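pls read this stuff:
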Amino acid sequence: MKKFVTLFLALFFYVTCLHAQNCWKSVSVGDGYTLALKEDGTLWGWGLNNQGQLGNGTLVNKTVPTQIGTATNWSQISAAHNFSTALKNDGTIWAWGDNTFGQLADGTTTNKTAPIQIGTATNWQSVSAGYNHIAALASDATIWLWGNNYSGQLGDGTNTDKKSPLQIGTNEWKAIHAGSGYTIALKTDGTLWTWGNNTSGNLGNGTLADRNTPGKIGTAADWQKIYSAPMAMKADSLLWGWGYNGYGQLGNGLNGSLNNLKNPAQIGASHWKEVSPSGTHTLGIKGNGTLWAWGYNENGKLGDGTQTDRSLPTQIGTDSDWKMVNANYYHTMAIKTDGSLWAWGTNSNGQLGDGTKISKSSPTPVACSGIALSINTSLNETAIEVYPNPSQGFFLITVDPAATEHGVVRVLNMTGNIVLEKQFSEKQFEVDLTNQPEGIYYIQVQTDNTLLHTGKIIKRH
């Protein structure tokens, strides 16, 4: 007897898979797209891909997590405006996407749709992608910058773009972050340094003048963490912020450009574990694991279920198991201690990864497998038909004729890995799993980058 893979079955999958496949390790949010690492060292991306920033060899947007290559040794990621960079466990650095200012460091200005290695060095420790430039820290405590230098953000005393890594200073650096036309860095002695664009007081030096060499901020020597919006945390876990405050993103109860800060100011008295400022809104995790947000709330990117701006930290939900959070201008992503990934905010390019393009104003789960967890899908029960199910390996798929143009079917195993992917353009086609072990698999049907259906199939002897 034929068995329909219906929305009911998809909902069953959503509930069971939500807790069974929590596999995310870290996440980085770019302008309209997302990159994430799984615990197995694989790299995934979704959302806007007009410059190849997803790194999957295409320029096609994705609304669900899509694996980038087959490597399993990725260790750190940094998504930016429309290009990306990442590190591998072997200490190499890679980049892809837009290359207008030479930020991919291959000596050209040609975009790349797949990761390319930058140089041959194997001692990179961290990397940060700014709006159009990259900053990296090597294991010998040296910092290197390249890409756009319009405002002096490379720190070499010029305003000339660089198409290859350029060392700044000596072996004295602990951390570095690239921002929107400026750079913030931390020395091993605990002092804070900035350079580049200073239009809104981004450099925190009491002026609005740009500078193209590193400048020390104040006299404090107990800075511990830095962020690119800009914000910084001291050894006592207290948070400090400065620069643009048009939406209350500094969290001091004020908003509007007249309340921009030219010098670092302490933000409340709370002790923070992690913070992610985007430039328009800020997310933070306190020491007790609770999640807080403040600033601009366009399309619900604060995650409090509203679109109301907040000029003071506001708790998001009541959960106390948040592990990390990352925010960009348009959306926010966060990971819990169980490895589950959550998204909210603008979703016009599918950057939330839930298989839709519907914005969310509260945290929404993202599947480990690359199959959407959203249940807000208008499917009829005859959208897809699978026969037989269970099967010994051959499954005949029948799809609504209106959904056969530019179709892709994917089959994933229980660990979330894609075991089969094929295009289709006919109403009926066959899926062959004879070379796969018996067990439960998940089938995903997608056309024109729109997720049509998700369901479960069973292979048995």
Confidence is low (pLDDT under 50) at residues 1-20, 372-382. The chain is about 5% helix and 45% strand. Residues 7-20 form the longest helix (14 residues). Residues 149 and 161 are 5 Å apart (CA to CA).
